[in-house]
Amino acid sequence: MKKNRNPYPCLECDLDRLSENLAALIERCHDSNIEVTGVVKAFAAQKEIVRVYERSNVKFIATSRIDQLRAMREAGINKKPLMLIRIPMLSELPDVVALSDISLQSDITVLRATNDEAKKQNKIHDVILMMDLGDLREGFWLAEEAVNAAVEIENELKNLHLAGVGVNLSCYGSVKPARRNMQALVNLAAEIERTIGRQLEWVSGGASTSMYMALGGMMPYRINMLRIGEFGLLGGIYGCYPDFMHRDVFTLKAEVIECRDKPSHPIGELEVDAFGRTRTYEDRGIRRRALLAVGRMDYGDPADIIPRRKGVEVLGASSDHTILDVEDVKDEIKVGDVLEFDVTYGALAYLSSADSVCVTTKGGNS
Ligand SMILES: *Cc1c(COP(=O)(O)O)cnc(C)c1O
After folding, report:
1. Residue 41 annotated in active site
2. Neighbour tally for 239: CB within 10 Å
3. For residues 289 and 323, is the Cβ–Cβ distance under 8 A?
């Protein structure tokens, strides 16, 4: 799948650490009666890594993209139901029905068209209705709209099965999951259940940012699913890194192609950088710099890669190069060395989908 045949740059995933992270977070969610949907979009659903989810106790494997669903089907990932977590495009519904078992939905037009497609394919497709509780990304805005959609699915859209309701927070609007918005979701679920006269299987209370509530025993009882990506992959999320999780599942490895003393301030009349930005540079005199054969094309933002070695500092990057200050460790670094970095969620998504970056795994035999 990847075009680069050279070993570097490379993104390495430690499958054992990932497996331990999943087991630890799933066990704690189970303590609160919560099932985990494993979200695999952040590593582009690379199949060796998805296998770890397949062997774990997640209930569903989820991604936002059809091409990743197709790749998982083709790789024979079939031990868990697959969930599509981006609201479907009307233009992709044949694939949505063919490739996913359950999808998140927020629009009655799309729901009706999904039903028509499911009928064509002679399938019953499960759906979860998303409610926008203030984060202002996807979801029904009025409870009445969501209830009406639920009733129409239940009574008229015979090739859909209404499996539950859900919410997404902390994305566009930075809204924190809390008692109030979780209770609003539970209330919506109760209202739908009263109206259609049966229980819903799932009340899906968000993503990794909701984990702190589950860990603290603060989730309302009726919330019984979280859709978790980052927390398992990076060992936590902003404000919540429990000590029982590994934070070094993923490692970026990149090779040094130049290492020499240079001034720290550019020479000549300054204009804009490779991306048209005006920049300022601190003059720290002559310092040892290392150049890495990896750049923004591979990971996005240089602020999103964090050197493992103390004394190494990321100064900046262009499309294909990363510039490091290595003055403090200058006797330890030379051309040909491979340096290691932690990655943020953003960098992980870029690195795993870039054709120029190898994805390798270690462990995974247990
Ligand atoms: C990406 C995504 C998730 C997972 O988010 P994490 O922060 O990685 O846990 C869950 N639900 C939806 C709808 C998403 O788009």
Report:
1. yes
2. 8
3. yes
Longest Cα–Cα distance in the chain: 75
Q: Which residues line ligand 1 (CB under 6 A)?
A: 39, 41-42, 64, 85, 104, 168, 207-208, 227-231
Among 21, 25, 26, 30, smallest CA distance to 49 is for 21
- pLDDT of res. 366: 60
Q: What is the pLDDT of residues 166-183, one digit of tens each?
A: 999 998 889 999 999 999
Question: What DSSP string describes 226-275?
Answer: EEESHHHHHSSBTTB--TTS-S-SEEEEEEEEEEEEEESS--S-----TT
Tokens of 218: 């603060």
d(CA 26, CA 36): 6
Question: How remote is the C-alpha of 318 from its chain's centroid?
Answer: 25
The residue from 2, 41, 310, 334 that is catalytic is 41
Residue type, 245: M
Query: What tokens does 268 get?
Result: 């000549």
| pLDDT of residue 278 exceeding 70 | yes
- Please give the helix or strand (H or E) that residue 48 lies within, else none: helix 47-55
C-alpha to C-alpha distances, 246 to 148, 243, 321, nearest whole angstrom:
44, 8, 29
Tokens of 187: 């209330």
Which of 221, 125, 117 has its CA nearest to residue 179? 221
Examine residue 9 and say whether the peptide bond preceding it is cis (omega within 30 degrees of 0).
yes
Distance in angstroms (rounded) separating the CA atoms of residues 21 and 158: 39
Query: Beta strand 250-263 with 225-228: parallel, antiparallel or unpaired?
Result: unpaired
H/E element holding 225? strand 225-228
Q: Is the pLDDT of residue 8 over 80?
A: yes
Contact 66, 94 (CB under 8 A): no
The whole-angstrom separation of Cα 329 and Cα 156 is 68
The pLDDT tens digits for 187-225 are: 999 999 999 999 999 999 999 999 999 999 999 999 999
- Cα of 354 vs centre of ligand 1, distance in Å, is 20
Give the CA count within 13 Å in the CB-facing half-sphere of 13.
29
Q: Is 173 helix (H, G, I), strand (E, B) or coil?
A: coil
